[in-house]
Design a protein that fits this description.
Blueprint (H helix, E strand, L loop, with lengths): L3 H7 L1 H10 L3 H13 L8 H15 L22 E14 L2 E7 L5 E9 L5 E7 L4 E6 L6 E8 L25 E5 L2 E12 L5 E10 L7 E6 L2 E4 L24 E2 L2 E5 L15 E5 L2 E2 L1 H21 L13 E12 L6 E10 L5 H8 L4 E11 L7 E4 L2 H15 L8 E6 L9 E5 L1 E2 L2 E2 L1 E3 L15
Helix pairs in contact: 2-4
Length: 463
C-alpha cells in the first residue's frame, strides 16, 4: 500500500524548491497577511519575507542561485526622505533658476537618516547622516553654491520613508499561491497544492499545502506545513490547521537562541599610508535578536571584511618617500547612471606631478581620456607622486589609467615603485561605468596646485 506521507517526506526538498522557484506575489502577501493574526510572527513587511525566502532556498539546498523574488507591489521609485526603513542613496542638491545640481554622499544604499547640513566658509557644505549600522558620519559636499540646498535620501528598492510604511493588501482569494504537483501510484492520484504561507518569529518561511486524493476512496484530504525543519502534518479533522509557531516541539523551530549585538573592527595594515582607506580602522555593527537574521548579518559582515583583507593581502607597508611636485586632482563622471541609482557614478583621482604643463596643457592632456570603472582596485605605491588609485574593470585597465597619469606626472610606474592589485566581488567596492573628466559649467574638473580647493580650472571662490 502506498505510504504517501513517507513519499512526501522523501520528496519534500523537490516540493518546496518547486514552490520557491515559482514564488508569486500572492504567496508573499499571504505571508505578510499572516503577520496580522500571528502576534509573534516576523512577517510584517516584504523585506522580512524576502530574507526568509533567501534563507529557505539556501537551507533546503535548492539547485542554482535563488530566483528573482516578485517585486514589492507597493514600492514606487522617486521618494525623497530624511529617514528610510532599510537604506537608501544620500543625495545633496542645489536648485536654482537654471535647474538643479546633485551630489551623492555616503555608500550607495547605506544611508538611513539625514541629520542636517552646514555651510562651510569656503562655500562647500558638510552633510551629517547615520548609516544602516547606526554609525554617524559627516561628509564634505563640493557643489556650486547658487540656489536652494537640500539633503535627502532616495530609498533603494523595497525600502520606504519612515513615515510612509505601507499597509499591504491581502492576496486575492482566487489567485493561486503556487503550482500544483501531481503524483500517481496504485491507481490513486494525489494533488499537492500550496495554499498559503507565513514567516514565524524566528524568520523561518513556512508553506502550507493541501493534499487532495482522486478518487476519494484513496484517502482523506488534509493539510501540512513545510519548512527547512521538515513537514508538520495536520489531522484530517483539522480543517483550519493553524501554523506551527512553534507547537511544543512538533514542527517547531530549534532556533530559539538569542544573539547579542556585536561590533567588529578591522585594523588596516599601513598606518603611514597616504590613502585613508588603507589606514583607518573600519567597523561593522551587527544588531542582536533571534538567531536567523543576526547570523545572516554576521556572515555579510565577515564577507565584507574578507573582501578588504583580500585587497590588502599583497600590500607591503613601506616608508613614505619625500613628495615632489604639485598635487593634481581630477574628478571623473560616468556616461550612464550607475547600476543601483539614478545618479551617475563619480570618481576622484589624485597624484603629484613634476611636469611644467600650463593649465590649458593639463586640460588638453586629460579631458579626452576615458576608462572603464569596475571592481578591481589598482594602486601604485612607494614613490614620490603619492599613491594614485583607481577602481577599474580589470587589472590591465587600472594600470592603463595609472600609466596615463604617470605620463603627465613624469614617472615610469613599471620601473619605479610597485603595483598593488586586488579586487572584491562585493558591490560596495566598485561599480561599473565608462568614466571621463567631469565638467561644471563647461570647465573640466581638473585642478593643479597644493592647497587646492579642487574647483575646476577657470573657477574660484573669491573671483
Amino acid at each position: 500500500m502506498f505510504d504517501e506521507k513517507s513519499w512526501i517526506i522523501q520528496n519534500l526538498k523537490g516540493i518546496d524548491c518547486n514552490t520557491l522557484q515559482n514564488m508569486s506575489t500572492a504567496a508573499m502577501l499571504a505571508s505578510i497577511a499572516a503577520g496580522d493574526t500571528i502576534g509573534d510572527a516576523a512577517a510584517t513587511a516584504f523585506k522580512a519575507v524576502e530574507v526568509a525566502l533567501d534563507m529557505a532556498w539556501a537551507v533546503q539546498g535548492c539547485e542554482n542561485d535563488p530566483p528573482e523574488w516578485p517585486d514589492d507591489p507597493m514600492w514606487r521609485a522617486g521618494a525623497e526622505c530624511s529617514c528610510v526603513t532599510g537604506g537608501g542613496n544620500g543625495i545633496f542638491q542645489v536648485v536654482s533658476w537654471d535647474g538643479q545640481r546633485q551630489y551623492s554622499f555616503g555608500q550607495p544604499g547605506d544611508v538611513q537618516q539625514v541629520l542636517g547640513y552646514d555651510d562651510m566658509p569656503n562655500g562647500d557644505y558638510i552633510v551629517s547622516y547615520i548609516d544602516k549600522g547606526g554609525a554617524r558620519h559627516s561628509e564634505q559636499v563640493v557643489i556650486e553654491k547658487t540656489g536652494v540646498p537640500d539633503a535627502y535620501i532616495e530609498p533603494t528598492k523595497g525600502n520606504y520613508c519612515c513615515d510612509q510604511i505601507p499597509d499591504y493588501p491581502k492576496p486575492p482569494l482566487d489567485e493561486p499561491i503556487g503550482p500544483i504537483l501531481e503524483h500517481e501510484e496504485e491507481e490513486c492520484k494525489i494533488e499537492i497544492e500550496p495554499v498559503t504561507s507565513y514567516v514565524d518569529k524566528f524568520g523561518t518561511y513556512w508553506s502550507k499545502y493541501n493534499v487532495r486524493h482522486y478518487p476519494s476512496t484513496c484517502g482523506r484530504d488534509y493539510f501540512f506545513w513545510s519548512s527547512d525543519q521538515g513537514p508538520y502534518f495536520c489531522n484530517p479533522e483539522d480543517y483550519e490547521c493553524p501554523p506551527p509557531n512553534p507547537r511544543g516541539g512538533e514542527g517547531g523551530s530549534n532556533n530559539d537562541v538569542s544573539v547579542d549585538e556585536k561590533t567588529y573592527t578591522l585594523f588596516q595594515p599601513c598606518p603611514d599610508s597616504l590613502d585613508p582607506f588603507f589606514k583607518n580602522p573600519e567597523e561593522w555593527k551587527v544588531a542582536g535578536g533571534q538567531a536567523n537574521l543576526p547570523v545572516i548579518e554576521r556572515l555579510d559582515a565577515i564577507s565584507d571584511m574578507l573582501g578588504i583583507m583580500h585587497m590588502t593581502a599583497s600590500l607591503t607597508c613601506t616608508s613614505k618617500k619625500d613628495e615632489k611636485g604639485d598635487w593634481v586632482t581630477i574628478q571623473w563622471i560616468s556616461d550612464e547612471a550607475s547600476s543601483d541609482s539614478q545618479l551617475r557614478l563619480r570618481k576622484r583621482t589624485r597624484y603629484r606631478s613634476e611636469s611644467s604643463r600650463s593649465d590649458d596643457e593639463l586640460i588638453a592632456y586629460h579631458q579626452g581620456f576615458t576608462w572603464e570603472a569596475g571592481p578591481v582596485c589598482v594602486r601604485h605605491v612607494g614613490e614620490w607622486w603619492g599613491e594614485p588609485q583607481v577602481w577599474a574593470k580589470d587589472a590591465n585597465e587600472g594600470k592603463r589609467v595609472i600609466r596615463h597619469l604617470a605620463g603627465e606626472a613624469g614617472i615610469d610606474p613599471d620601473k619605479d615603485g610597485r603595483w598593488a592589485v586586488a579586487g572584491a566581488r562585493n558591490p560596495r567596492f566598485g561599480r561599473s561605468g565608462t568614466m571621463r573628466v567631469r565638467k561644471i559649467e563647461g570647465f573640466p574638473w581638473i585642478s593643479s596646485r597644493d592647497g587646492s580647493n579642487m574647483l575646476p580650472m577657470g573657477q574660484c571662490l573669491d573671483c
